[in-house]
Design brief:
About 80% of the residues lie in helices and about 0% in strands. The chain is an all-alpha fold.
Length: about 80
């Protein structure tokens, strides 16, 4: 898990400096690892899914649709009242 957390942190750092290709690669690695370790509906996996969407070069409309899907999955996994995600 520590390696996956490090990939998440590196993905964020690369995004801060505008290195979107590396950011996306680190987020993909973290997401795949979280899915394997924790499942597709775990909060960590869903967070990586969100971050990966935000770092992907797609239209804003596509991002919004994908993020709406993630929100639905978060609400189903964690409950609609959860405010920590």
């Amino acid at each position: 898990m520590e390696i996956l957390d490090a990939c998440n942190a590196l993905g964020q750092a690369c995004g801060w400096v505008g290195d979107w290709d590396d950011s996306r690669r680190y987020f993909e690695r973290a997401k795949e690892g979280y899915e394997e370790q924790l499942g597709t509906d775990d909060a960590n996996t869903l967070e990586m899914t969100r971050d990966l969407i935000m770092s992907t070069r797609i239209s804003d409309g596509e991002k919004i649709e994908k993020l709406r899907d993630v929100l639905k999955r978060v609400e189903m996994a964690l409950g609609e009242e959860n405010v920590e995600f």
